[in-house]
TrEMBL record:
Keyword Oxidoreductase: yes
Annotated ranges, domain Mannitol dehydrogenase C-terminal: 290-470
Species assigned in the record: Cohaesibacter marisflavi
Pfam families: Mannitol_dh, Mannitol_dh_C
Keyword Oxidoreductase belongs to the record: yes
GO MF terms held by the record: oxidoreductase activity, acting on the CH-OH group of donors, NAD or NADP as acceptor
Mannitol dehydrogenase N-terminal domain segment(s): 32-280
Superkingdom of this protein's organism: Bacteria
Segments forming a coiled coil: none
Family annotation (InterPro entries): 6-PGluconate_DH-like_C_sf, 6PGD_dom2, Mannitol_DH, Mannitol_DH/Oxidoreductase, Mannitol_DH_C, Mannitol_DH_N, NAD(P)-bd_dom_sf
Protein name in the entry: Mannitol 2-dehydrogenase
Amino acid sequence: MVELIPLRNDTLGDIPSCVKTPTYDRSTLSAGIVHIGLGNFHRAHQAWYLHRLMEMGLAKDWAIVGAGVRDHDRAQRERLVAQDFLTTLIRLDPKEKSAEVTGSMIDYVPVEKGNRPLIERMSQPDIRIVALTVTEGGYYLDPATGQFDATHPDMEHDAANPDSPRTAFGAMIAALKQRREAGTGPFTGLCCDNLQGNGGILKRTLVSLAKLSDADLADWIETHCTFPNSMVDCIVPATGAKELALVHSFGIDDAVPVTHESFRQWVIEDNFCKGRPDWDRAGATFAPSVHDYETMKLRILNGGHQIISMSGDLLGIKTISGCMDHEAIRAFLLNTMKREVLPNVKPVPDMTPSSYLELIEARFSNPEIVDTTRRVAFDGSSRQPGFIIPSIRDALANGQPIDGLALMSALWMRYCYGKREDGSVIEPNDPNWAALNKVAEASVDDPTNWLNQRQYYGDIAQNDLFREAFIRWAICLAEDGVDSVLQTYLHR
C-alpha cells in the first residue's frame, strides 16, 4: 500500500518527486483577488493560470482568497483550511496521467449568515478583483428576456437588508459601499461563468440590485467599477471516489483533488479598473472583444454537452465519453452541429468553427475524463436558453434547418419527465425540476404545453417551422423511444 502524505505546507517536501509542487515561497504571497464559488473548475482553471505566473516569480501580490455564500461552502472551506489551501490537480490525458500541487490560494473567508466576513474582506484595499463562478443560472435574470428579476426572494431580501445580504451580489454591493465611504475605490468584477457577455450580465445584476436600496451607490458602481467579459474553457469533472483513489495513487492525501483535461483556454476583455495579473504570460488571451470566442464555445461545447448528455442519460449511459461511443448519439451531435449550429458561428484567430468541432469531438471522447451525463445535464432551465435556443433563433432567422435542435428540445422535455428508457427514475436535476416535471407530464398528450413556457422559449415557440418539428419529435419520442428516434433523425 502506498504511504499517503497529508497535503500541507510542511509536507510539500515529502510529496513524491513525480508530482510537481510549488517552487515559490508561499509565505511571501499576498492577496489581490477574492473568488466567490470556489469549486473544481476555478481551481483547475483560473487558479492554475495564477499559479503558473507565480512559478515564473510573478503576480505574488495577486493571491486568491476563496469565498462562498451557501451552507455547503462551509464544508469546502474546512477541507481547504486543513490542507493550507493547496490543491492537487491531476491531468487526465489518454496517453498519461500527471499531477501537480498548486498554491495560488492563500485563504478562505469564513462562511456566515449575513456574509459580514466576506463583505469586510472585499472592502480591504488589497483586493482589486472580485471574481465569480456561481453557475449560469445564478445571476437572477429572467431567462426569456435577460432582464434583472427584482421579484426573486433572494433579491427582495438583499434589497431590504443591504447590510446583511444572503447573495454574493448583495455582499459585493455592501463591500463597494464601504470602499466608496472609505475612499478605497472600486474593484473589478470578473465573471467566469458560461454566459454570453458575462461581464455585462454581472454588471446588470449588481447595478440593478443596488438601485433597489441605494440609487447613488448604483450610479457609482456603474461609473467606477469595470466588468470585463471572459470566456473560460476546460472540462473538469466532479470529485468522487474515483478521483480520491486517483490522488491516493500519487501518494497524496488530498480531501479535494481536482481532475481535468489537458486543454485550457481563457479569453479576457482587457478592462480592469485596479490592475490585473499578466495572465497572458501563462497562456491566457487578452482581447478587445470576446464575443466571437464566447459564441463558439457556448454554442459548440456547451450546446454539444446538452445534446449528448440528455440523450445519454435517457439511455442509461453514465459518462460523456460513453455517449461518444454510442454511434447514434455521436452522429446526432455532429450532424446537428454541422448543419444547424456552425453556419452561425464566426471563426476566431487560429480557429474555425469546423476545427473547433473536431477538437470538441476529441475532448468529449477522452475516456480518462469520467464526466457524468447527470452532471452535464444539470440545470437545463438555464443551459437550454443559454446554449441551445440562441442557435435555434439564429437558424430560424437565416432560413436554415432546425430539425436536430428541435429534437434536442424535445429530448429536454422527455428528460424532465423523469424516467429513462429502462423505466428507472431520473432524480431531480434542475433547480426548477418540480415545475419542469409537472409541465413535462402535462405535455405527454399535448406537447404544446412545453412550448408555452415562454420564460425559456420566448417568441420562437410561435414559429411554425420550429413548433411543427418539436411536436413531431415529441410524439415520436413518446411512441418509439430515444434510440429509434435518433435513427429516424439520422436517416431522414
